[in-house]
Amino acid sequence: MLSKFKTSSGTSRGQPKLMPVTAEFANKWELFRGLYESSVIKHFGDINQAGKRLELMFARPEIETATGLKAASVSTSIYNECNFRTILPKLYTSPIETIFCPDPNQGLYCQLLLGLIQRDEVITVGSIFASTVLRGIKFLENHWHELCYDIKTGRLSDWITHSGCRNAASLVMKPNPEQAGLIENICNCKSWEGIVRKLWPKARYIGCVCTGVMRQYIAELEFYCRGLPLVSTSYACSEAICGINLEPLCKPCDVSYTFLPNMAYFEFLPVENDHDESIEMKRNDEDTELVDLVNVKAGQCYELVVSTCAGLYRYKVGDVLMVSGFYNTAPQFQFVERKNVILSVDQEKTSETDLFKAVTEAKALLDPLGFILTEYTSYVDTSSAPGHYVLFWEIKGKEGKNCKELDPKIMVECCSRMEESLHYTYRIYRKRNIIAALEIRVVKQGSFEALMDYYVSKGTSLSQYKKPSCIKSEEALKILDSRVIGKYFSPKSPL
Ligand code: AMP
Protein backbone atom coordinates (compact mmCIF):
# COMPACT_ATOMS: atom_id res chain seq x y z
CA MET A 1 0.00 0.00 0.00
CA LEU A 2 1.27 3.48 -0.81
CA SER A 3 2.18 5.37 2.32
CA LYS A 4 3.49 8.62 0.80
CA PHE A 5 5.38 10.11 -2.14
CA LYS A 6 8.93 11.24 -2.59
CA THR A 7 9.64 14.38 -4.60
CA SER A 8 12.62 14.29 -6.93
CA SER A 9 14.83 17.40 -7.03
CA GLY A 10 13.64 18.26 -10.54
CA THR A 11 16.66 20.41 -11.33
CA SER A 12 17.56 18.65 -14.57
CA ARG A 13 14.08 18.34 -16.08
CA GLY A 14 12.51 21.45 -14.59
CA GLN A 15 9.70 19.96 -12.51
CA PRO A 16 10.00 17.83 -9.35
CA LYS A 17 8.31 14.45 -9.85
CA LEU A 18 6.34 12.38 -7.34
CA MET A 19 7.61 8.84 -6.69
CA PRO A 20 5.52 6.27 -4.82
CA VAL A 21 6.68 5.01 -1.41
CA THR A 22 5.55 1.93 0.51
CA ALA A 23 6.60 0.81 4.00
CA GLU A 24 8.82 -1.88 2.46
CA PHE A 25 10.52 0.68 0.21
CA ALA A 26 11.05 3.09 3.12
CA ASN A 27 12.76 0.33 5.15
CA LYS A 28 15.30 -0.19 2.40
CA TRP A 29 16.82 3.24 3.12
CA GLU A 30 17.71 2.11 6.64
CA LEU A 31 19.34 -1.06 5.29
CA PHE A 32 21.17 0.99 2.64
CA ARG A 33 22.62 3.39 5.22
CA GLY A 34 23.96 0.45 7.22
CA LEU A 35 25.62 -0.97 4.10
CA TYR A 36 27.44 2.13 2.89
CA GLU A 37 28.44 3.07 6.41
CA SER A 38 30.06 -0.32 6.91
CA SER A 39 32.19 0.35 3.83
CA VAL A 40 33.23 3.74 5.29
CA ILE A 41 33.92 2.27 8.74
CA LYS A 42 36.12 -0.42 7.18
CA HIS A 43 38.39 2.28 5.74
CA PHE A 44 38.15 5.14 8.25
CA GLY A 45 37.53 3.38 11.56
CA ASP A 46 34.38 3.55 13.64
CA ILE A 47 33.37 7.14 12.98
CA ASN A 48 30.25 6.61 15.09
CA GLN A 49 32.37 6.20 18.20
CA ALA A 50 35.18 8.61 17.34
CA GLY A 51 33.29 11.90 17.18
CA LYS A 52 30.54 13.83 15.42
CA ARG A 53 29.74 14.57 11.81
CA LEU A 54 29.38 18.11 10.53
CA GLU A 55 26.86 17.37 7.80
CA LEU A 56 25.02 20.22 6.08
CA MET A 57 21.38 19.10 5.92
CA PHE A 58 18.28 20.92 4.76
CA ALA A 59 14.71 19.64 4.90
CA ARG A 60 11.77 20.98 2.91
CA PRO A 61 8.26 21.13 4.30
CA GLU A 62 6.10 18.14 3.34
CA ILE A 63 3.36 18.91 0.84
CA GLU A 64 -0.07 17.34 0.72
CA THR A 65 -0.95 15.81 -2.65
CA ALA A 66 -4.46 15.63 -4.17
CA THR A 67 -4.67 12.01 -2.92
CA GLY A 68 -4.34 13.20 0.67
CA LEU A 69 -0.96 11.45 0.93
CA LYS A 70 2.05 13.53 1.92
CA ALA A 71 5.04 14.13 -0.37
CA ALA A 72 8.58 15.01 0.72
CA SER A 73 12.07 14.86 -0.72
CA VAL A 74 14.13 11.73 0.01
CA SER A 75 16.42 13.67 2.32
CA THR A 76 13.49 15.22 4.22
CA SER A 77 11.97 11.76 4.68
CA ILE A 78 15.26 10.51 6.11
CA TYR A 79 15.54 13.49 8.48
CA ASN A 80 11.97 12.80 9.60
CA GLU A 81 12.62 9.16 10.48
CA CYS A 82 12.41 8.29 14.14
CA ASN A 83 15.72 6.41 14.03
CA PHE A 84 17.52 9.35 12.47
CA ARG A 85 16.16 11.78 15.07
CA THR A 86 17.33 9.42 17.82
CA ILE A 87 20.92 9.14 16.58
CA LEU A 88 21.22 12.79 15.49
CA PRO A 89 22.35 14.42 18.79
CA LYS A 90 25.01 11.77 19.37
CA LEU A 91 26.39 11.51 15.84
CA TYR A 92 25.91 14.95 14.27
CA THR A 93 26.71 18.54 15.23
CA SER A 94 23.48 19.93 13.69
CA PRO A 95 20.33 19.92 15.84
CA ILE A 96 17.10 18.91 14.10
CA GLU A 97 15.66 22.47 14.34
CA THR A 98 18.46 23.82 12.13
CA ILE A 99 17.75 21.12 9.52
CA PHE A 100 14.05 21.93 9.42
CA CYS A 101 14.48 25.71 9.53
CA PRO A 102 12.35 27.12 6.67
CA ASP A 103 15.06 29.68 5.81
CA PRO A 104 18.06 27.68 4.48
CA ASN A 105 20.44 30.58 5.18
CA GLN A 106 19.52 30.72 8.87
CA GLY A 107 19.79 26.93 9.02
CA LEU A 108 23.20 27.01 7.31
CA TYR A 109 24.52 29.76 9.60
CA CYS A 110 23.53 27.79 12.70
CA GLN A 111 24.89 24.50 11.35
CA LEU A 112 28.25 26.11 10.62
CA LEU A 113 28.26 27.89 13.97
CA LEU A 114 27.58 24.69 15.91
CA GLY A 115 30.07 22.79 13.75
CA LEU A 116 32.73 25.38 14.63
CA ILE A 117 31.90 25.39 18.33
CA GLN A 118 32.28 21.59 18.38
CA ARG A 119 35.25 21.63 15.98
CA ASP A 120 37.44 19.44 18.17
CA GLU A 121 34.87 16.66 18.00
CA VAL A 122 34.18 16.80 14.26
CA ILE A 123 35.24 13.57 12.59
CA THR A 124 33.75 14.11 9.08
CA VAL A 125 32.51 17.10 7.10
CA GLY A 126 30.03 16.79 4.27
CA SER A 127 26.61 17.00 2.72
CA ILE A 128 24.79 14.87 0.15
CA PHE A 129 26.29 16.66 -2.86
CA ALA A 130 29.62 18.45 -3.40
CA SER A 131 27.90 21.68 -4.45
CA THR A 132 26.25 22.03 -1.03
CA VAL A 133 29.61 21.58 0.75
CA LEU A 134 31.04 24.37 -1.42
CA ARG A 135 28.03 26.54 -0.73
CA GLY A 136 28.81 26.03 2.96
CA ILE A 137 32.47 27.00 2.52
CA LYS A 138 31.57 30.12 0.54
CA PHE A 139 29.01 31.08 3.16
CA LEU A 140 31.75 30.69 5.75
CA GLU A 141 34.02 32.97 3.70
CA ASN A 142 31.36 35.67 3.85
CA HIS A 143 30.32 35.17 7.47
CA TRP A 144 33.36 34.07 9.48
CA HIS A 145 33.80 37.46 11.21
CA GLU A 146 30.21 37.30 12.43
CA LEU A 147 30.47 33.62 13.38
CA CYS A 148 33.61 34.32 15.41
CA TYR A 149 31.91 37.25 17.14
CA ASP A 150 29.00 34.99 18.11
CA ILE A 151 31.39 32.32 19.42
CA LYS A 152 33.34 34.93 21.37
CA THR A 153 30.28 36.49 23.02
CA GLY A 154 28.14 33.34 23.25
CA ARG A 155 25.27 35.30 21.66
CA LEU A 156 23.55 34.44 18.40
CA SER A 157 23.23 37.14 15.70
CA ASP A 158 19.92 38.98 15.65
CA TRP A 159 19.08 38.09 12.06
CA ILE A 160 18.59 34.46 13.16
CA THR A 161 14.94 34.87 14.00
CA HIS A 162 13.80 31.22 13.77
CA SER A 163 12.94 30.31 17.35
CA GLY A 164 13.85 26.61 16.91
CA CYS A 165 17.34 27.56 15.73
CA ARG A 166 17.77 30.11 18.53
CA ASN A 167 16.72 27.61 21.20
CA ALA A 168 18.90 24.82 19.80
CA ALA A 169 21.94 27.10 19.51
CA SER A 170 21.48 28.53 23.01
CA LEU A 171 21.84 25.02 24.46
CA VAL A 172 25.38 24.75 23.04
CA MET A 173 26.63 28.35 23.03
CA LYS A 174 28.61 30.00 25.81
CA PRO A 175 31.18 32.78 25.55
CA ASN A 176 34.43 31.28 24.26
CA PRO A 177 36.92 34.02 23.27
CA GLU A 178 39.78 31.54 23.06
CA GLN A 179 38.07 29.32 20.48
CA ALA A 180 36.87 32.40 18.56
CA GLY A 181 40.46 33.70 18.44
CA LEU A 182 41.79 30.41 17.07
CA ILE A 183 39.13 30.29 14.35
CA GLU A 184 39.70 33.97 13.51
CA ASN A 185 43.43 33.34 13.02
CA ILE A 186 42.76 30.41 10.72
CA CYS A 187 40.17 32.27 8.62
CA ASN A 188 42.21 35.46 8.48
CA CYS A 189 44.96 34.00 6.32
CA LYS A 190 45.29 35.14 2.70
CA SER A 191 44.77 31.76 1.11
CA TRP A 192 41.96 29.44 2.13
CA GLU A 193 43.79 26.44 0.79
CA GLY A 194 43.23 23.50 3.18
CA ILE A 195 40.86 25.57 5.34
CA VAL A 196 38.58 22.61 6.12
CA ARG A 197 41.43 20.62 7.55
CA LYS A 198 42.62 23.56 9.61
CA LEU A 199 39.19 24.31 11.03
CA TRP A 200 38.30 20.69 11.73
CA PRO A 201 41.67 19.06 12.47
CA LYS A 202 40.23 15.66 13.40
CA ALA A 203 38.15 15.28 10.20
CA ARG A 204 39.04 12.03 8.44
CA TYR A 205 37.31 12.73 5.14
CA ILE A 206 34.84 14.93 3.28
CA GLY A 207 31.70 12.96 2.50
CA CYS A 208 29.68 14.07 -0.53
CA VAL A 209 28.83 12.87 -4.02
CA CYS A 210 31.62 14.06 -6.33
CA THR A 211 30.59 12.03 -9.37
CA GLY A 212 28.29 12.91 -12.28
CA VAL A 213 27.52 16.59 -12.55
CA MET A 214 29.36 17.11 -9.22
CA ARG A 215 32.76 16.25 -10.72
CA GLN A 216 33.11 19.88 -11.83
CA TYR A 217 33.55 20.80 -8.16
CA ILE A 218 36.34 18.33 -7.37
CA ALA A 219 39.26 20.71 -8.04
CA GLU A 220 37.77 23.48 -5.93
CA LEU A 221 36.89 21.12 -3.09
CA GLU A 222 40.38 19.63 -3.16
CA PHE A 223 41.77 23.15 -2.80
CA TYR A 224 39.74 23.84 0.34
CA CYS A 225 40.21 20.36 1.81
CA ARG A 226 43.86 19.80 0.83
CA GLY A 227 44.93 16.32 1.90
CA LEU A 228 41.53 15.11 3.09
CA PRO A 229 39.98 12.36 0.96
CA LEU A 230 36.77 13.21 -0.90
CA VAL A 231 34.42 10.28 -0.44
CA SER A 232 31.37 9.59 -2.59
CA THR A 233 29.71 6.89 -0.56
CA SER A 234 26.65 5.96 -2.57
CA TYR A 235 24.47 6.33 -5.62
CA ALA A 236 20.75 6.64 -5.10
CA CYS A 237 17.80 8.56 -6.49
CA SER A 238 14.20 9.23 -5.54
CA GLU A 239 13.16 6.36 -7.79
CA ALA A 240 15.40 3.69 -6.25
CA ILE A 241 18.46 2.97 -4.17
CA CYS A 242 21.18 1.73 -6.49
CA GLY A 243 24.74 1.18 -5.29
CA ILE A 244 27.52 1.79 -2.81
CA ASN A 245 31.18 2.67 -3.16
CA LEU A 246 33.28 -0.18 -1.76
CA GLU A 247 36.56 1.72 -2.27
CA PRO A 248 35.90 5.04 -0.53
CA LEU A 249 39.59 5.97 -0.69
CA CYS A 250 39.84 5.82 -4.46
CA LYS A 251 40.23 9.05 -6.47
CA PRO A 252 36.89 10.84 -7.06
CA CYS A 253 37.25 10.38 -10.83
CA ASP A 254 37.62 6.59 -10.41
CA VAL A 255 34.60 5.99 -8.18
CA SER A 256 32.44 2.97 -9.04
CA TYR A 257 29.22 1.97 -7.38
CA THR A 258 28.54 -1.72 -6.72
CA PHE A 259 24.87 -2.34 -7.40
CA LEU A 260 22.70 -3.85 -4.68
CA PRO A 261 20.30 -6.29 -6.33
CA ASN A 262 18.05 -6.41 -3.25
CA MET A 263 17.12 -2.72 -3.54
CA ALA A 264 15.19 -2.79 -6.86
CA TYR A 265 14.99 -4.79 -10.07
CA PHE A 266 17.60 -3.24 -12.33
CA GLU A 267 17.59 -3.42 -16.11
CA PHE A 268 19.76 -1.61 -18.60
CA LEU A 269 19.23 -0.04 -21.98
CA PRO A 270 22.44 -0.13 -24.04
CA VAL A 271 23.51 3.38 -25.06
CA GLU A 272 25.60 4.15 -28.12
CA ASN A 273 27.94 7.03 -28.63
CA ASP A 274 26.23 8.74 -31.53
CA HIS A 275 28.50 11.48 -32.76
CA ASP A 276 31.86 9.93 -33.47
CA GLU A 277 33.08 10.77 -36.96
CA SER A 278 29.64 10.66 -38.61
CA ILE A 279 26.08 11.63 -37.86
CA GLU A 280 24.52 8.31 -37.06
CA MET A 281 20.80 8.11 -36.64
CA LYS A 282 20.18 6.94 -33.12
CA ARG A 283 18.23 3.74 -32.71
CA ASN A 284 14.84 4.11 -31.18
CA ASP A 285 14.78 3.03 -27.51
CA GLU A 286 11.83 0.74 -28.28
CA ASP A 287 14.01 -1.27 -30.70
CA THR A 288 16.67 -1.87 -28.08
CA GLU A 289 16.38 -4.87 -25.77
CA LEU A 290 16.76 -4.39 -22.05
CA VAL A 291 19.67 -6.21 -20.44
CA ASP A 292 19.42 -7.73 -16.95
CA LEU A 293 21.90 -6.84 -14.21
CA VAL A 294 23.58 -10.25 -14.52
CA ASN A 295 24.17 -9.79 -18.26
CA VAL A 296 25.79 -6.35 -18.44
CA LYS A 297 29.17 -6.21 -20.19
CA ALA A 298 32.30 -4.48 -18.91
CA GLY A 299 33.02 -1.22 -20.76
CA GLN A 300 29.47 -0.85 -22.12
CA CYS A 301 27.30 2.18 -21.32
CA TYR A 302 23.68 1.75 -20.33
CA GLU A 303 20.74 3.83 -19.32
CA LEU A 304 19.38 2.69 -15.96
CA VAL A 305 15.82 1.28 -15.87
CA VAL A 306 14.25 0.34 -12.52
CA SER A 307 11.24 -1.60 -11.27
CA THR A 308 10.59 -1.13 -7.57
CA CYS A 309 8.52 -2.70 -4.83
CA ALA A 310 6.80 0.69 -4.54
CA GLY A 311 5.22 0.28 -7.98
CA LEU A 312 7.54 1.75 -10.62
CA TYR A 313 7.69 -0.58 -13.61
CA ARG A 314 10.60 -0.33 -16.05
CA TYR A 315 11.10 3.31 -15.19
CA LYS A 316 13.90 5.15 -16.98
CA VAL A 317 15.85 7.08 -14.38
CA GLY A 318 17.64 9.16 -17.03
CA ASP A 319 21.16 8.31 -15.84
CA VAL A 320 23.80 6.81 -18.13
CA LEU A 321 26.25 4.45 -16.43
CA MET A 322 29.27 2.49 -17.58
CA VAL A 323 30.18 -0.99 -16.34
CA SER A 324 33.62 -0.56 -14.79
CA GLY A 325 34.09 -4.02 -13.25
CA PHE A 326 32.64 -6.59 -10.88
CA TYR A 327 32.75 -7.19 -7.14
CA ASN A 328 32.52 -10.99 -7.04
CA THR A 329 29.71 -11.19 -9.57
CA ALA A 330 27.96 -7.93 -8.69
CA PRO A 331 28.44 -5.38 -11.48
CA GLN A 332 30.03 -2.06 -10.64
CA PHE A 333 29.17 1.13 -12.51
CA GLN A 334 30.72 4.50 -13.06
CA PHE A 335 28.29 7.36 -13.42
CA VAL A 336 28.63 8.84 -16.92
CA GLU A 337 25.99 11.54 -17.31
CA ARG A 338 22.34 12.57 -17.25
CA LYS A 339 20.80 11.41 -20.47
CA ASN A 340 18.55 14.30 -21.28
CA VAL A 341 21.11 17.07 -20.97
CA ILE A 342 21.72 17.86 -24.57
CA LEU A 343 22.65 21.01 -26.42
CA SER A 344 21.56 20.96 -30.00
CA VAL A 345 21.26 23.68 -32.63
CA ASP A 346 20.73 21.40 -35.62
CA GLN A 347 21.24 17.62 -35.75
CA GLU A 348 24.33 17.58 -33.54
CA LYS A 349 23.91 16.46 -29.96
CA THR A 350 26.23 17.63 -27.22
CA SER A 351 25.97 15.71 -24.00
CA GLU A 352 26.83 16.64 -20.42
CA THR A 353 30.12 14.74 -20.79
CA ASP A 354 31.03 16.47 -24.08
CA LEU A 355 30.44 19.80 -22.44
CA PHE A 356 32.41 18.85 -19.32
CA LYS A 357 35.41 17.78 -21.42
CA ALA A 358 35.38 20.98 -23.48
CA VAL A 359 35.04 23.17 -20.38
CA THR A 360 37.89 21.27 -18.70
CA GLU A 361 40.16 21.97 -21.69
CA ALA A 362 39.22 25.64 -21.82
CA LYS A 363 39.43 26.41 -18.12
CA ALA A 364 43.00 25.08 -18.08
CA LEU A 365 43.90 28.43 -19.69
CA LEU A 366 42.74 30.27 -16.56
CA ASP A 367 44.57 28.24 -13.93
CA PRO A 368 48.14 29.50 -14.62
CA LEU A 369 46.87 33.09 -14.55
CA GLY A 370 45.51 32.70 -11.02
CA PHE A 371 41.83 32.34 -11.85
CA ILE A 372 39.47 29.42 -11.18
CA LEU A 373 36.27 28.58 -12.98
CA THR A 374 33.95 27.89 -10.04
CA GLU A 375 30.65 27.26 -11.85
CA TYR A 376 29.32 26.84 -15.35
CA THR A 377 26.15 26.01 -17.17
CA SER A 378 24.92 26.31 -20.74
CA TYR A 379 22.02 26.87 -23.09
CA VAL A 380 21.33 27.15 -26.79
CA ASP A 381 20.52 30.65 -28.00
CA THR A 382 18.30 30.46 -31.07
CA SER A 383 17.11 34.06 -30.90
CA SER A 384 19.22 34.79 -33.99
CA ALA A 385 20.00 32.49 -36.92
CA PRO A 386 22.04 30.39 -36.90
CA GLY A 387 21.76 29.48 -33.24
CA HIS A 388 24.80 29.14 -31.00
CA TYR A 389 25.95 27.62 -27.71
CA VAL A 390 26.13 29.95 -24.72
CA LEU A 391 28.17 29.11 -21.63
CA PHE A 392 27.70 30.98 -18.37
CA TRP A 393 30.94 31.04 -16.39
CA GLU A 394 31.51 32.24 -12.84
CA ILE A 395 35.20 32.92 -12.29
CA LYS A 396 37.07 33.60 -9.10
CA GLY A 397 40.52 35.10 -8.66
CA LYS A 398 42.92 33.17 -6.44
CA GLU A 399 44.33 34.91 -3.38
CA GLY A 400 42.25 38.04 -3.60
CA LYS A 401 42.80 38.62 -7.35
CA ASN A 402 39.97 40.53 -8.99
CA CYS A 403 38.21 39.10 -12.04
CA LYS A 404 38.44 42.53 -13.68
CA GLU A 405 42.16 41.84 -14.12
CA LEU A 406 41.35 38.96 -16.46
CA ASP A 407 42.52 39.74 -19.99
CA PRO A 408 39.56 39.60 -22.47
CA LYS A 409 41.89 37.94 -25.00
CA ILE A 410 42.11 34.93 -22.67
CA MET A 411 38.34 34.64 -22.55
CA VAL A 412 38.17 34.73 -26.37
CA GLU A 413 40.84 32.03 -26.35
CA CYS A 414 38.69 29.98 -23.94
CA CYS A 415 35.80 30.19 -26.44
CA SER A 416 38.06 28.89 -29.22
CA ARG A 417 39.47 26.14 -27.01
CA MET A 418 35.96 25.00 -26.15
CA GLU A 419 34.97 24.80 -29.80
CA GLU A 420 38.15 22.90 -30.70
CA SER A 421 37.42 20.44 -27.88
CA LEU A 422 33.83 19.75 -28.87
CA HIS A 423 33.00 16.72 -31.01
CA TYR A 424 33.43 16.27 -34.75
CA THR A 425 29.83 16.97 -35.70
CA TYR A 426 29.85 20.27 -33.83
CA ARG A 427 33.05 21.36 -35.55
CA ILE A 428 31.76 20.43 -39.03
CA TYR A 429 28.51 22.32 -38.47
CA ARG A 430 30.41 25.29 -37.19
CA LYS A 431 32.62 25.32 -40.28
CA ARG A 432 29.54 25.22 -42.49
CA ASN A 433 28.01 28.05 -40.45
CA ILE A 434 25.07 25.88 -39.41
CA ILE A 435 26.07 26.84 -35.86
CA ALA A 436 27.28 30.37 -35.00
CA ALA A 437 30.26 31.21 -32.78
CA LEU A 438 30.25 29.85 -29.24
CA GLU A 439 29.78 32.51 -26.58
CA ILE A 440 30.96 32.67 -22.99
CA ARG A 441 29.06 35.04 -20.69
CA VAL A 442 30.97 35.74 -17.52
CA VAL A 443 28.62 36.33 -14.60
CA LYS A 444 29.39 38.14 -11.36
CA GLN A 445 30.26 36.35 -8.11
CA GLY A 446 27.26 34.77 -6.41
CA SER A 447 25.20 34.33 -9.60
CA PHE A 448 25.09 30.57 -9.25
CA GLU A 449 24.10 30.93 -5.61
CA ALA A 450 21.20 33.06 -6.82
CA LEU A 451 20.34 30.27 -9.28
CA MET A 452 20.41 27.73 -6.45
CA ASP A 453 18.19 30.00 -4.33
CA TYR A 454 15.74 30.25 -7.22
CA TYR A 455 15.43 26.45 -7.53
CA VAL A 456 15.15 26.09 -3.76
CA SER A 457 12.35 28.71 -3.74
CA LYS A 458 10.58 26.57 -6.36
CA GLY A 459 10.58 23.54 -4.07
CA THR A 460 13.95 21.83 -4.60
CA SER A 461 15.59 20.70 -1.39
CA LEU A 462 18.96 22.43 -0.86
CA SER A 463 20.32 19.05 0.24
CA GLN A 464 19.42 17.49 -3.11
CA TYR A 465 20.05 20.46 -5.41
CA LYS A 466 22.00 19.68 -8.55
CA LYS A 467 22.75 22.63 -10.76
CA PRO A 468 21.43 21.96 -14.29
CA SER A 469 24.19 21.54 -16.89
CA CYS A 470 21.83 23.06 -19.43
CA ILE A 471 19.31 25.76 -18.58
CA LYS A 472 15.83 25.20 -19.92
CA SER A 473 13.74 27.53 -17.78
CA GLU A 474 13.19 31.12 -18.91
CA GLU A 475 13.23 32.40 -15.34
CA ALA A 476 16.51 30.66 -14.52
CA LEU A 477 18.00 32.12 -17.69
CA LYS A 478 16.92 35.62 -16.66
CA ILE A 479 18.67 35.19 -13.30
CA LEU A 480 21.99 34.49 -15.00
CA ASP A 481 21.54 36.95 -17.86
CA SER A 482 20.85 39.80 -15.47
CA ARG A 483 24.24 39.18 -13.83
CA VAL A 484 26.44 39.06 -16.93
CA ILE A 485 29.59 41.22 -16.67
CA GLY A 486 31.30 40.23 -19.93
CA LYS A 487 30.47 38.50 -23.22
CA TYR A 488 33.07 36.81 -25.39
CA PHE A 489 32.79 34.99 -28.72
CA SER A 490 34.94 32.49 -30.50
CA PRO A 491 36.70 34.48 -33.26
CA LYS A 492 37.02 31.68 -35.82
CA SER A 493 35.54 28.30 -36.58
CA PRO A 494 37.53 25.38 -35.13
CA LEU A 495 40.02 23.49 -37.30
P1 AMP B 1 16.84 13.24 -7.12
O1 AMP B 1 16.07 14.06 -8.08
O2 AMP B 1 17.20 14.02 -5.93
O3 AMP B 1 16.23 11.94 -6.88
O4 AMP B 1 18.23 13.00 -7.82
C1 AMP B 1 18.70 11.74 -8.19
C2 AMP B 1 19.74 11.95 -9.26
O5 AMP B 1 20.93 12.49 -8.67
C3 AMP B 1 20.18 10.66 -9.89
O6 AMP B 1 19.29 10.21 -10.87
C4 AMP B 1 21.52 11.08 -10.44
O7 AMP B 1 21.38 11.79 -11.65
C5 AMP B 1 22.04 12.03 -9.37
N1 AMP B 1 22.90 11.27 -8.43
C6 AMP B 1 22.57 10.70 -7.27
N2 AMP B 1 23.61 10.07 -6.71
C7 AMP B 1 24.65 10.25 -7.56
C8 AMP B 1 26.01 9.83 -7.58
N3 AMP B 1 26.54 9.14 -6.59
N4 AMP B 1 26.76 10.20 -8.64
C9 AMP B 1 26.25 10.94 -9.64
N5 AMP B 1 24.98 11.36 -9.69
C10 AMP B 1 24.19 11.02 -8.66
Automatic annotation (TrEMBL):
Pfam families: GH3, GH3_C, GH3_M. One of its GO terms (cellular component) is cytoplasm. InterPro entries: GH3, GH3_C, GH3_M. Belongs to the IAA-amido conjugating enzyme family. Residues 354-475 form the GH3 C-terminal domain. GO terms for molecular function: acid-amino acid ligase activity. The keyword ATP-binding does not apply. PANTHER family: GH3 DOMAIN-CONTAINING PROTEIN, INDOLE-3-ACETIC ACID-AMIDO SYNTHETASE GH3.17-LIKE ISOFORM X3. This is Indole-3-acetic acid-amido synthetase GH3.17-like. Residues 257-338 form the GH3 middle domain. It comes from the Eukaryota. It comes from Gossypium mustelinum. Keywords: Ligase. The keyword Iron-sulfur does not apply.
